[in-house]
């Protein structure tokens, strides 16, 4: 069985560790092939039970892999010398459909994907041209449900089965499927989010993606108007704006200034103070933190907020070192687990590198109600 994972360019090594850990949980070995800055990893797994593999991804969610699917490949579509005229007469559809038919039961969505790099995006025109043709043929064969929604919708239901066609180049393809929590709700693991014109910084999209990723369908229940939040390291106000936009009362803590309309928002109180030292007088519903600091210090700080009862839920970023990044994330996870355990607090922790993250990961830590 072949597994393909999308990731941020430069994090192929960490993504390979994700796949190796999941494979171990599924009881198989993984032989990963990585190319630096390719933005994807291919892993060859042994005799794999697909259900067991998907359960392993749920039990041990990848940290750096944005999207994972299992299938087969690489399938040769056309001779390499014929790929320059990518929209020429070569029949790429027939071998792709045959490969899908050999693997898949009917699915709800088809995603024709490519690597999230400048070179990979050269495949976007070919991917668009192939999508409608492959969809038509799959529907004719009963492999794609006629009720499938537009795959570009912001959030696909998490229990949908998706067919993947990944084009590393114009001559070859990997095909496979993912389902529910073992995959991603977005093609290539990339959410299609619109930048709000009133937000003071693009970091606001990072918080939106985190809320969708970690809260899913429960977002409106867990983050609603009238709640109270503290935003540590708030300036220039991208995260604060997003919280206030949802009707949350926010204490924005930062010695730097807030910018734009968030600076005068009646739901926002700006405190010029050190975010690493501030604590509220009474418990808040949320604490968020995007401070540039050593990851272990931020992890410990957020664990203290939850363990001591200063906040019920936390969303925060951990800025990663240049080397041994996976080890550092695991060290932070261990520190958080140890702190909340000592306090006798039952909490849930999830860590992911989001599409809008750079050299960092985002974590969600919450007391269990």
Describe the structure.
- This protein is α/β, with parallel strands linked by helices.
- The protein is 30% helix and 24% strand.
- It has helices at residues 12-25, 50-59, 93-103, 124-140, 203-215, 219-222, 238-245, 295-308, 325-342, and strands at residues 2-6, 30-34, 40-45, 67-76, 109-114, 161-167, 172-179, 228-232, 249-253, 268-271, 284-289, 311-319, 347-352, 360-367.
- Strand 6 and strand 7 form a beta hairpin.
- Helix 3 crosses helix 4 and helix 5 crosses helix 7 (238-245).
- The protein is globular and about 65 Å long.
- It starts with a strand and ends with a strand.
| C-alpha end-to-end distance | 40 Å
How many DSSP-defined strands?
Answer: 14
Q: What is the overall number of helices? A: 9
What Rg, in angstroms, do the CA atoms define? 22 Å
Q: Could you give a short account of the major beta sheet?
A: 7 strands, mixed
Fraction of residues in helices? 25-40%
Strand-residue fraction?
15-25%
Q: Spans of 5+ residues with little confidence (pLDDT < 50)? A: 148-156
Structural class: alpha/beta
Shape: globular
Mean pLDDT: 92
Series of H and E elements: EHEEHEHEHEEHHEHEEEHEHEE
Strand order of the largest sheet: 2-3-1-4-7-6-5
């Amino acid at each position: 069985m072949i597994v393909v994972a999308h990731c941020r360019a430069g994090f192929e090594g960490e993504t390979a560790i994700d796949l190796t850990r999941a494979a171990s949980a599924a009881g198989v070995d993984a032989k990963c092939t990585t190319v630096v800055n390719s933005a994807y990893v291919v892993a060859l797994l042994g005799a794999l039970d697909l259900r067991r593999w998907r359960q392993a991804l749920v039990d041990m969610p990848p940290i750096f892999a944005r999207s994972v699917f299992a299938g087969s490949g690489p399938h040769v579509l056309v001779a390499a010398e014929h790929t320059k005229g990518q929209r020429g007469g070569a029949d790429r559809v027939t071998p792709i459909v045959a490969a899908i038919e050999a693997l898949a039961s009917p699915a709800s969505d088809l995603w024709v994907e490519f690597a999230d790099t400048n070179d990979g995006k050269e495949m976007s025109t070919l991917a668009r041209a192939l999508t409608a043709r492959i969809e038509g043929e799959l529907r004719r064969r009963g492999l794609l449900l006629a009720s499938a929604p537009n795959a570009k919708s912001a959030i696909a239901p998490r229990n949908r089965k998706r067919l993947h066609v990944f084009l590393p180049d114009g001559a070859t393809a990997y095909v496979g499927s993912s389902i529910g929590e073992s995959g991603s709700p977005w093609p290539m693991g990339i959410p299609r989010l619109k930048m709000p014109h009133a937000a003071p910084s693009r970091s606001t999209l990072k918080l939106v993606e985190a809320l969708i990723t970690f809260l899913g369908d429960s977002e409106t229940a867990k983050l609603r108007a009238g709640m109270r939040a503290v935003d540590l390291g708030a300036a220039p106000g991208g995260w604060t704006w997003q919280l206030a936009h949802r009707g949350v009362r926010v204490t924005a803590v930062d010695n730097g200034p807030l910018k734009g309309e968030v600076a005068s928002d009646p739901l926002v109180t700006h405190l010029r103070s050190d975010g690493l030292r501030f604590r509220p007088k009474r418990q808040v519903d949320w604490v968020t933190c995007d401070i540039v600091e050593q990851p272990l210090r931020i992890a410990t700080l957020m664990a203290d907020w939850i363990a001591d009862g200063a906040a019920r839920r936390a969303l925060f970023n951990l800025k990663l070192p240049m080397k041994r990044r996976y080890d550092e994330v695991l060290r932070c996870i261990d520190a958080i687990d140890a702190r909340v355990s000592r306090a006798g607090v039952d909490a849930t922790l999830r860590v992911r590198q989001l599409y809008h993250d750079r050299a960092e990961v985002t974590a969600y830590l919450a007391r269990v109600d």
